[in-house]
C-alpha cells in the first residue's frame, strides 16, 4: 500500500477505538481470521466512512486501528495510485474492497505479472511470502487492510532497466511508490558505494 508519514496524511482525529472495531482474540490473527475481520469491518461504515477522502493530487489513507497484534488502514484509491512492488515483511494481511475496485498484481519471473481486479464486496488474504503491487481500478475506490502482526517494516522492490530486482527495507510509515525508474537504482548504487567507501576507510 501507499503510505506517507502518518503526520502528513489526511487522517481524521476520530479514528475508531477498540470498542468500535470487530472483536479481536488478543493474539496475532491467522490469515482466515484476518479476512473474516476485515469483512466484518467492511460492514461497519460508521467506523470508517467519515475518513474517506479523494482528490487533491495526493494519496489519502487513514490509520483505523493499531494494537500489539493488528494494524488496520483505510486506503482511498484513484486510478493514478500505484504502490509499486512490495512485501509486508513478517506480517500476514487481508484486504476488503468496500467501494469501487482495485488492481492487484503479483510479479512473475520471465513473464507478465499475474493481475486481477478485486471489486467492492470482495476480499482476500495473504501471507508474509506475498509480493504484490496495488492500484486503483476505478477512481473513488476504497479498501480496508489489516495486518498481523502489525506492520513495522516492509520490503519495497525496484526493478532496473536490466530486469534485476532489488529489495529495500522501509518503515511501514514510508510512502510506497513505484521504484522502477533508473534514478532509484542509481541512488541505490550511490548509497552502496558510499557505504563501501566508509567500510574501506574503517578497515584502513
Ligand atoms: Fe500490500
UniProtKB/TrEMBL annotation:
Q: Where does Fe cation bind?
A: 86, 88, 132
Which N-terminal stretch is annotated as signal sequence? none
| Compositionally biased residues, Low complexity | 1-20
Q: Tell me which Pfam families the record gives.
A: CDO_I
Q: Does the keyword Oxidoreductase apply?
A: yes
Question: Which protein, by its recorded name, is this?
Answer: Cysteine dioxygenase
Give the family from UniProt.
Answer: Belongs to the cysteine dioxygenase family.
Tell me the organism: Frigoribacterium faeni
| Molecular function as annotated in GO | ferrous iron binding; oxidoreductase activity, acting on single donors with incorporation of molecular oxygen, incorporation of two atoms of oxygen
Question: Sorted alphabetically, which InterPro entries does this protein's record hold?
Answer: CDO_1, RmlC-like_jellyroll, RmlC_Cupin_sf
Provide this UniProt record's keywords sorted from A to Z: Dioxygenase, Iron, Metal-binding, Oxidoreductase
Region: Disordered, residue numbers: 1-27
Q: What is the lineage of its organism?
A: Bacteria, Bacillati, Actinomycetota, Actinomycetes, Micrococcales
Q: Which domain of life is it from?
A: Bacteria
Amino acid at each position: 500500500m501507499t503510505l506517507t508519514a502518518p503526520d502528513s496524511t489526511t487522517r481524521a482525529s476520530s479514528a475508531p477505538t477498540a470498542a468500535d472495531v470487530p472483536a479481536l482474540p488478543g493474539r496475532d490473527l491467522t490469515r482466515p481470521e484476518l479476512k473474516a475481520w476485515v469483512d466484518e469491518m467492511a460492514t461497519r461504515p460508521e467506523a470508517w466512512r467519515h475518513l474517506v477522502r479523494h482528490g487533491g493530487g495526493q494519496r489519502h489513507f487513514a490509520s483505523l486501528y493499531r494494537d500489539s497484534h493488528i494494524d488496520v488502514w483505510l486506503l482511498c484509491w484513484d486510478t493514478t495510485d500505484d504502490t509499486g512492488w512490495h512485501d509486508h515483511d513478517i506480517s500476514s494481511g487481508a484486504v476488503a474492497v468496500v467501494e469501487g475496485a482495485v488492481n492487484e498484481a503479483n510479479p512473475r519471473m520471465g513473464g507478465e505479472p499475474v493481475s486481477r481486479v478485486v471489486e467492492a464486496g470482495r476480499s482476500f488474504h495473504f501471507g508474509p511470502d506475498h509480493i504484490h503491487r496495488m492500484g486503483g481500478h476505478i477512481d473513488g475506490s476504497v479498501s480496508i487492510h489489516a495486518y498481523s502482526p502489525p506492520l513495522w517494516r516492509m520490503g519495497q522492490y525496484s526493478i532496473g532497466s536490466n530486469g534485476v530486482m532489488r529489495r529495500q527495507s522501509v518503515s511501514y510509515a514510508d510512502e510506497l511508490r513505484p521504484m522502477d525508474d533508473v534514478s532509484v537504482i542509481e541512488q541505490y548504487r550511490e548509497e552502496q558505494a558510499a557505504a563501501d567507501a566508509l567500510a574501506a576507510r574503517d578497515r584502513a
